[in-house]
Each structure stands twice: as C-alpha cells, then as structure tokens.
Specification:
This protein is an alpha+beta fold. The chain contains 14 helices and 18 strands. β5 and β6 form a beta hairpin. α1 packs across α14 and α5 packs antiparallel against α9. The longest helix is centred in the C-terminal third of the chain and has 14 residues. 41% of the residues are buried.
C-alpha cells in the first residue's frame, strides 16, 4: 500500500500522529477525535487543530459519533489511540436488544464498537496504549479488564501482542511505563505469521513487531497457553473470580484465537541514553525562565515536607485503621538520570510531592517549564503553546496535557516495526 490510512482516537495533541509520521511518511492520518469529557474548554482539541488543521477532526463524544454519525469515521488501515484506563466490565441490556455493552463512558467500548460496526472493512491493524495497571485491574479480579479486551478482540478476528515499555530503558529521557497493544486482523500478513509460528516464544523474543522495536533478552522458558473461556459476560463475571493476588498477565504476551501466552521479559538495549540534564534549558539568555517557575523561599519547607518520607495512621471508609507510609523522593530531581514520569498535576506553583524540581547552575530551585515537559515526551518545542494563532494555552493546561501524553519516540519505533512487517 502506498499510504497507510490512520484514524487517531483520544488523540490528545497528536502524539501517535507525530510518532507515526516520524517513522515513515507512508502513514497518513485521515481522521482524528479528541474530546475531554466534562470539560467546557477543549484545550487539547484546539491545539490539535491549530497544529494539524481542523479538516477531518472531531471534537465530540466519540460514542455519540458512533451512534449518530458513524459515516464520518472513514475506512482505514490502522486504528490508534491511548484510551483511558477504566472499569471494562460488561453487562446486558434488559431486553437483550443491544447485547453486550460497556458501562456508560467506558471508552474501550468505543473502540470495540467502531471495529464491530466496520465489519469486513475494519482496520487490519491496531496500536493502542494504556497505563500498565490495565494488566492487573481491577484489584478484586486481577487481569479481568485485560481479559475482556483480549476476548472481544479475538471475537472480532484479531491476534494481539502486548508489552509494557519503560521508555527510559530504551534510551528515551523519561521513565514512563505504558502498555502497548498491537492488533492484527485475520487475513493480514502479520496474523498469518503469528499463526505459522511453531514456537510462540519466537514471536515474543525475536520475530514479533514489538520485539523488533524493543528487543528483550532471550529466555529458554516454554510458554504454556491459557484460554479465555465463555462469552464476554462470562469473562467479565468469572475471570479471576477466585480473587488471586497476582494477575495472570505478565508484562509481555501474545494472543491468538483466545489462547494467550505471557512471560516477564527484560529489556535488551545497547544504545545511548538521554537524561534530564540533556533536556533542561540551562542558558536563560536563549529562553528566559519566568519567575513563577522558581521556588519561593517561604514555600521551601512545604516542598521538603511533601517530598520527604512519612508514616501516618489512616482510616478507610469502612473504619479499618492502618499505617500509611511512603518513602522519600529526590529533592531536587537528579539531572543525571532520565526524568520521573510526568503527571497531569505537574503545572502550577503550589508545592507538590510529584512535580519535578531541579537545581539551576545558580543554585536556585525551579519547576520544569512546559517546553521542557514537551521535550521529555519528545514533542516539538512549544507544540502546545497555541490553541490558535492568537490564543496562548495556559501553562497549567500545557502541563496537564503532557501528563496525559505519550513518548513520541516509542510510537516512532513501533510504527517503523509495524510498517516493516506489513
């Protein structure tokens, strides 16, 4: 195919799009959707339109689009998206008319519904991203949510592989752990390659798309298959219903025809590494640092307290008393390591346990600026600065958006490996 047509869901400010375009110009995003539930001001969508243009971009509830204007979602080859991690349990309508559906607002089912409604014209490939706790949620039924996803994709005719990738372990400047889920539709070349593997370990360690993008150390262990049984309602009700302490899903795996193989893998990377010092702006003559990013003297003790370790008695909602403890965090953050994970609460001047604080060459302490957060996620400098040519995005919102974003370089590697395997 000359062009690989892409639909980007839960697009944020276009991290998937940037990564795929960095991998090869053969990827072409033909439709995108970004809508922040419960928010009147749609900052991310406005930034997306400012950067990429408003053509073929939707700022509407994706489920509303699916139900009322599905035709606006064009046929495509690759569906991508970083969907929120929620409760993916399923239920049945009272009259059974709609069969299985997700709880209202659970966005995984929007992906499912698009694939289901597209039918024979569903995309051949999927590239999805989520927080790594997806593999072990919910706490009462470890792994159930991911089992529901795998079973529903298998029923739609997809083979799936997944891997938890810590970006810093492959040379990127941020310690950001996310699970990446690749899907291959029955009839595609990649689906057939997985099916032909005599030893599924070969796909996980050597031949798989994710293995090509992110090599791991070879292990001689033979992987037993596990089968996800029953319709989706049964999977939702019964999977891990014995309440195991540990999820059956390890950080790496592959699924075909509802049989899944999973193993814990260890990264194997021999390239260069980037650290926080490579990202931080040291020369204030190039980019002046606004005074609000420096830590106020009167707030310093509060910062130290929040960053420090603590043990304190707490009581749960049901009256259970316990001792809550948390260890100390580096203060200021080390410039000699990749940064910690950017969180959505990174913005604003108020003291916080989780915001990054660095020590400047002059000895002053300051928070990271939005342009530095963008660089940690490998976005172009000031990618989020404008919502249109005359409207600047608030710094707090820019930080929030980067806390929700992904590391663009990870997508670029996956995109190249996927294109090579097609």
């Amino acid at each position: 195919m000359k062009k690989i047509k892409v639909v980007e869901l839960f697009a944020g400010v276009g991290g998937f799009r940037l990564g795929l375009e960095k991998a090869t110009k053969e990827y072409e995003t033909i439709w995108s959707s970004q809508w922040e539930p419960g928010s009147k001001a749609q900052h991310a969508s406005a930034i997306y339109k400012h950067v990429f243009g408003s053509a073929n971009h939707s700022c509407e509830d994706i489920q509303e689009v699916i139900e009322k204007d599905f035709k606006q979602i064009p046929d495509h080859h690759l569906l991508v998206g970083g969907f929120p991690c929620q409760d993916y349990s399923v239920a049945r309508t009272l009259n059974q008319a709609k069969g299985i559906y997700g709880k209202k607002g659970v966005l995984w089912w929007s992906i499912f519904n698009i694939l289901n409604k597209k039918g024979k014209k569903a995309p051949s490939f999927l590239m999805l991203e989520n927080v790594d706790r997806l593999l072990k949620s919910p706490s009462g039924q470890r792994g159930r949510d991911f089992a529901v996803m795998l079973a529903s994709l298998a029923d739609l005719g997809y083979a799936v592989e997944w891997r938890v990738v810590n970006a810093a372990e492959y040379g990127f400047p941020q310690r950001r752990r996310r699970v990446f889920i690749m899907g291959y539709k029955k009839g595609s070349k990649i689906f057939n390659l997985i099916k032909k593997e005599k030893e599924i370990e070969n796909w996980i360690y050597k031949n798989g798309v994710i293995a090509k993008a992110f090599p791991v150390k070879k292990d001689e262990v033979k992987l037993p298959p596990f089968k996800i049984e029953g319709d989706l309602k049964k999977v939702s009700d019964k999977f891990s219903s014995n309440k195991p302490k540990k999820s059956p899903f390890e950080n790496t795996g592959v699924m075909l025809d509802r049989k899944f193989y999973t193993v814990k893998t260890i990264p194997e990377y021999e390239g260069s590494f980037k650290i926080l010092n490579d990202i931080v702006i040291h020369d204030e003559s190039l980019i002046p640092i606004p005074k609000e990013f420096f830590i106020k003297d009167e707030d310093l003790e509060k910062w130290k307290t929040l960053k420090g370790g603590k043990k304190e008695p707490r009581k749960s909602k049901d009256g259970f008393e316990y001792l809550y403890s948390e260890g100390p965090m580096a203060f200021p953050d080390s410039l000699k390591k990749p940064s910690r994970t950017i969180v959505t609460g990174e913005g604003g001047s108020s003291p916080s346990r989780f915001k990054h604080v660095i020590k400047t060459k002059s000895g002053k302490l300051r928070r990271l600026m939005p342009v530095e957060l963008e660089k940690l996620n490998m976005f172009p400098p000031n990618h989020t600065k404008f919502m249109d040519k005359d409207k600047i995005t608030p710094d707090v919102k820019r930080a929030f958006i980067m806390g929700n974003a992904l590391v663009v370089g990870v997508i670029a590697k996956l995109g190249k490996a996927l294109r090579d395997a097609m």
